[in-house]
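Q: I'm teaching a short session on how sequence maps to structure, and I want students to see two examples side by side rather than one. Could you give me a first protein with its sequence written out and its structure tokens following it? Keep the formatting plain so it prints cleanly on a handout.
A: Of course. Example one:
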Amino acid sequence: QVPLVESGGGLVQPGGSLKLSCAASGFTLDGYPIGWFRQAPGKERERVSCTSGTTGSTSYADSVKGRFTISRDNAARNTEYLQMNNLKPEDSAVYYCALSCILPYNYWGQGTQVTVSS
């Protein structure tokens, strides 16, 4: 059983927005580093963001900086969100979250497909 489940993907036009969710079942995300990754066809999986498990600060890949934002469900503390604005066709990929900011990682979920197209 994978620890995290992604959802919220879909088809959006360039310039549009999507909000992805990364949900833990049975535990909170407190203290865990959370990485968001994406993989487009024919390309390697790349990290989009990393939230530190100790400081809670988030860093972003240059390609998404200023457009993507991480937030947490402060009530249940078991969900992290990836708000994606001003989406571009090159953002199209399957998006994954992980209890790690580094690879390799062996507990991937199904991911959620994001397609940016007119």
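Q: Perfect. Now a second example for contrast.
A: Example two:
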Amino acid sequence: QVQLVESGGGLVQAGGSLRLTCAASGSIFSIKAMAWYRQAPGKQRELVAGITSGGSTNYADSVKGRFTISRDNAKNTVYLQMNSLKPEDTAVYYCSSSIVTRGLDTYWGQGTQVTVSS
């Protein structure tokens, strides 16, 4: 069984920073892509940032230049450094990973709330 556990969300003022962490645990053979998604009230879940096992990254246009995704393969962990936060960044942030156990499956974390006040 694989678990993804997120941490680091909270309440911050506009212009502030937060760092989200997502740690994968369980019967993991290898981890392929890892990503962060977010879902604001009344909106669809959207991709925020992704990173491949080789370290290639991609970002939503709305967060480019403000957010940075990184990973520590030795710790099966992915991070999202969020700077210059805006009220429109308020959402529940979810970690997602493509993980090889007996096969390749996508796993999701439980979500962590990020609230940016104006």
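Q: What should students look for in example two?
A: Point them to this: The radius of gyration is 14 Å. Also worth mentioning: The mean pLDDT is 96.
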